[in-house]
Amino acid sequence: MTSNMLRVAIVDDHPIFRNGLARSLSDEPGFEVVGEGASAADAVALFNEHRPDALLLDLSMPGGGHQALRSIVETDPAATVIVLTASEEDSDLFDALKEGAKGYILKGVNASTLVSAVQNVVAGESYVSPSLAARILTEMKGETALPQPAAPRNPHDDALALLTPREEQILGLVADGNSNKEVARQLNLQEKTIKHNMTRILQKLKARNRTEAAIFLRDARSRS
């Protein structure tokens, strides 16, 4: 395989679905399926062995997909884990994103959309199935009262103060639901400049993904 292949691992406890997905991705130019598994333990083992560019993870499986996600992100905070599930529950969606998932895709998506989503996530974007994306925007804008873990003091307030005015401007646009490309267009900058700034923002905030960083900013502004 050439070095520019996108290496993917798949973990799902339904063998017919998993095998079909593996065949479909293997047929795509530029994709290599490096491993398959059926449990949380398999997910962790596959990640540690292969360090894939993306790991597609179901949530309903022996050992629990959420546990697998947490374990992988604890091992490598930069890991690209994309949840591929049938669950449309808010709790699964928001927990997965807070645990470090870079994408959340509902099963039933067509092959071309899945391929594009995986490629975009590996390139540094986040992806959530459109039918669920509005819930994230609503949550970030404070229009619903979803259960939040109690916190006596937000430890990210000091980290937010470390952001430069440009970084805070970029994060604000991301919090409004804009992609890197849209932010670049609005600020008349190159997309790679936005990606570079987002990497620095995530490092400063110790956030696992852009959604979590945007929520930190929203929470800080609501208290100011």
TrEMBL record:
GO biological process per UniProt: phosphorelay signal transduction system; regulation of DNA-templated transcription
Limits of the HTH luxR-type domain: 156-221
Every Response regulatory domain range: 7-122
Top-level taxon of the source organism: Bacteria
Residues where 4-aspartylphosphate is found: 58
SUPFAM superfamilies per the UniProt record, alphabetical: C-terminal effector domain of the bipartite response regulators, CheY-like
UniProt-listed Gene3D superfamilies: 3.40.50.2300
Pfam families xrefs: GerE (PF00196), Response_reg (PF00072)
Keyword Transcription tagged: yes
A GO term for molecular function: DNA binding
Alphabetized UniProt keyword annotations: DNA-binding, Phosphoprotein, Transcription, Transcription regulation
Protein name, UniProt field: Two-component system nitrate/nitrite response regulator NarL
Species for this entry: Rhizobium metallidurans
Higher taxonomy: Bacteria, Pseudomonadati, Pseudomonadota, Alphaproteobacteria, Hyphomicrobiales
